[in-house]
Design goal:
379 residues; alpha/beta; Rossmann fold; 2 domains; 6-stranded parallel sheet; 15 helices; 13 strands; 17% strand; elongated
Length: 379
């Protein structure tokens, strides 16, 4: 049985979700999985005999102004590598996880291969920071294999960091056992959504890059022509701004703030359209979650979004900030029940073919096997 170590950010976020779901699916395929993180990944909600959790504990010495998490992580990685005889250490995010993994590999006695998966902000935000740029490039170059969640992210990485390392595209996926259309119409009663009202949904961490104001302005135009309600799911620094804008536009009776929710697939099951108006998005996992639940989507022509949405078939792509075009697309789609059902079916089909978990997990397994077979050949 091959042993895979996985390190990710364990809190809510696309990279942590993917890393955790990947670990669970690999365990079902016969791999032994060891999560090495600062806390239990929030999607690791079921017991499996081949999944183990190793908590990174940070020491608080007075000499350190800030707790050295990256060093504590490297030390824990090295300990787990040697004790458990880890074959592959798969880290999600180059910074700081790949750097810590490289240090751990140097410390450990047992030979281990490092796979680094780039998810976006490690390149699009930290990758343009003069302080971190060289370090991130080093983490990529020193990894045994590197993957990215979209072709656009590969392009950005090569342009910004000038790395020569081959980067393989392996798309994100969703857990089909959780993300599918369910009969949850009773939820509409909770939020006083009438049967003749269309449901538009936005899910995010409410940061500036998500441009929540564009979602609200788009909905403000939609609701003038379509009986509808907007569900805003999530929390973050832009939440108060969203509240104020909804009040300013007199939409308080039509916009429902739900905060952070775990039952995302249930909420998607009562939705008709998903809006994602971001100015930065390396993939857009929430779009794929929506498509798996038979929800059409509208997103901006940014990052990996055009690789997820098939324009004119599963949803629509609009230019950044173009709320007028987004609203017009939404109005025409929501007012045409036949077209809406067609788009919903095509969205599900795209999710089940191009992004199916079995297909994606198999790509990771093939990558692992290649790395391990190269090791054997080199001995």
């Amino acid at each position: 049985m091959k042993k895979i170590g996985i390190t990710c950010y364990p809190t809510i976020g696309g990279s942590g979700i993917i890393a955790t779901e990947l670990g669970k699916l690999l365990a079902e395929r016969g791999f032994e999985i060891h999560f090495i993180t600062s806390s239990l990944p929030f999607r690791l909600d079921s017991i499996h005999p081949d999944i183990y959790f190793h908590e990174v504990e940070i020491s608080h010495y007075p000499v350190f102004q800030y707790p050295p998490y990256d060093l504590a992580l490297a030390a824990k990685m090295a300990d787990v590598i040697d004790r458990e005889k880890i074959d592959i250490l798969h880290v999600h995010y180059a910074m700081p996880h790949a750097i810590s993994a490289i240090l751990a590999r140097d410390i450990a006695s047992h030979d281990v291969k490092i796979v680094t998966t780039l998810h976006g902000t490690d390149i699009t935000v930290l990758g343009i920071d003069r302080i971190f740029k060289r370090m991130i490039a080093y983490g990529i170059e020193q990894s045994d294999a590197v993957t990215a969640v979209s072709n656009e992210l590969v392009k950005q990485t090569l342009q910004q960091l000038k790395v020569k390392k081959k980067i393989e595209v392996i798309y994100n996926f969703v857990n089909e056992k959780e993300y599918y259309k369910k009969d949850k119409d009773y939820i509409k009663d909770y939020y006083e959504i009438h049967p003749d009202e269309k449901v538009i949904i936005h899910i995010s961490n409410f940061r500036k890059v998500k441009r929540i104001q564009d979602v609200i302005y788009t909905f403000e135009k939609i609701q003038k022509h379509v009986k509808s309600k907007l569900l805003l799911v999530g929390d973050g620094p832009e939440l108060q701004t969203a509240f104020e804008l909804v009040n300013k536009l007199a939409l308080t009776e039509k916009v429902v703030f739900l905060g952070r929710q775990k039952n995302i697939s249930d909420l998607l099951s009562i939705s008709d359209l998903k809006l994602l108006m971001s100015e930065q998005e390396s993939f857009g996992l929430v779009l794929l979650e929506a498509m798996a639940c038979e929800v059409s989507t509208i997103g901006t022509n940014i990052g990996g979004i055009p690789e997820v949405i098939s324009h004119g078939e599963t949803g629509y792509i609009v230019e950044l900030g173009d709320t007028e075009t987004a609203a017009n697309y939404a109005i025409s789609l929501l007012n045409d029940e036949k077209l809406l059902k067609k788009f919903s079916a095509q969205a599900l089909n795209r999710a089940q073919t191009l992004f199916h978990s079995e297909h994606i997990v198999e790509q990771y397994i093939m990558l692992y096997k290649k790395l391990l077979s190269d090791t054997i050949k080199g001995e």
